[in-house]
Amino acid sequence: MAAAAEAEEVHLSDIMENFDYKDFTLQWHITHRCNLRCNHCYQEDYSAFQSMEDIENVLDQYCTLLKAYNCLGRLNITGGEPLTHPHLFEILRLAHSKGIKTGVLTNGTLIGEWDARKLKACHVDYVQISLDGMEKVHDSIRGRGSFQKAVNGIYALKSQGIFTSISFTAQNGNLSELKKLAIFCYFLGIDKLWFDRVIIPADEDKNKLTVSSEDFQKLCRTAARFNKRNMVFCGRSLQFIPCKNKLIYHCSAGENLLIVLANGDVMPCRRLPFIIGNIKQTDLLTLHQNSPVMNELRSTGIPESCKDCKYSELCRGGSKCVAYAKMKRFDIPDPDCKFRKISKAPK
């Protein structure tokens, strides 16, 4: 893989030639500290934490990248649990002052009325809370009492008129919960409920949480029925297939997305296990342009076995992270696609 190759300098003009995105998303893990220990979490370190000096440096580098690409900024602040960071609201205010759209991705358990008012005052564009089912199932995944605390957080956000999104992570053990959650969220007045698959490398999935291709396709059909009533958003990889609303997503890893972890490490996607550098040694723009991994992700293109599919130009092979987790390759079709031609993992 190119991940092992030496960095080859790529000029900005070479990237701009094929860069036709209006926005660029930075998913920023401002802390690895968290008050929960979810069974599917990919967090290994729970101590890393960014100082205000580091925070200002990251924002400055992000603004430089946005200016270079003439893009709007979309900053998703997460953790760990972002509400454990004492400077969260300061970060949101600073980002807003620079014209960057902001979202907070949280487990919701630490949001009270005061926090919701502060989030509103910081002009946050949306808050996403994770719910992995109704109370019994959610608590079995995220910890006893976490469901009711998250719901209390939802009420606080809704009282301030903040756009509230719910994220459902599908895994073995909660697949039947999506339809119950859709009805629950409808009556809560949730603005958006969306779902995705748990991503765990096959050789690390000791608890067998990964959803089979057949179960994922069945879940997509269930979601499509609720999508007709605007109760479930079907906008992630492959979810368009059974859905009449053909909002076709393609993987943005290597393109208009970067991840910054609390220790400064930079990744193309939180669910692809590649560290492309550290923001304390190399700036974001240089990493985006010259990382061998980023360049390989950009140059991979549509998998050969997808090219006869009528959706190939838009879908572009589905999720690279799923392909890599299951097959140790990201240049092949998403293994959960019903239209795929079988690709083999490397020996």
Write the layout of secondary structure elements.
Layout: H1 12-16, E1 23-29, H2 52-69, E2 72-78, H3 88-97, E3 101-106, H4 113-121, E4 126-130, H5 135-142, H6 146-159, E5 164-170, H7 177-188, E6 192-197, H8 213-227, E7 257-260, E8 265-267, E9 277-278, H9 284-290, H10 292-300, H11 312-315, H12 320-327
Parallel strand pairs: 1-2, 1-7, 2-3, 3-4, 4-5, 5-6
Antiparallel strand pairs: 7-8, 8-9
Helix pairs in contact: 4-6
Query: On the 0-100 scale, what is the average pLDDT?
Result: 90
Please count the beta strands (DSSP E, at least 2 residues each): 9
Poorly predicted parts:
1-7, 343-347
Count of alpha/pi helices? 12
- The computed structural class is alpha/beta
Gyration radius over CA: 20 Å
Q: H/E order of the elements?
A: HEHEHEHEHHEHEHEEEHHHH
Could you characterize what this model shows?
The protein has about 350 residues and is of the alpha/beta class. Helix content is about 35%, strand content about 15%. It contains 12 helices and 9 strands. It has helices at about 10-15, 50-70, 90-95, 115-120, 135-140, 145-160, 175-190, 215-225, 285-290, 290-300, 310-315, 320-325; strands at about 25-30, 70-80, 100-105, 125-130, 165-170, 190-195, 255-260, 265, 275-280. Strands 6-5-4-3-2-1-7-8-9 form a 9-stranded mixed β-sheet, with helices on one face. Strand 7 (about 255-260) and strand 8 (about 265) form a beta hairpin. About 40% of the residues are buried.
Q: Outline of this structure?
A:
The protein is α/β, with parallel strands linked by helices and 347 residues long. The protein has helices at residues 12-16, 52-69, 88-97, 113-121, 135-142, 146-159, 177-188, 213-227, 284-290, 292-300, 312-315, 320-327; strands at 23-29, 72-78, 101-106, 126-130, 164-170, 192-197, 257-260, 265-267, 277-278.
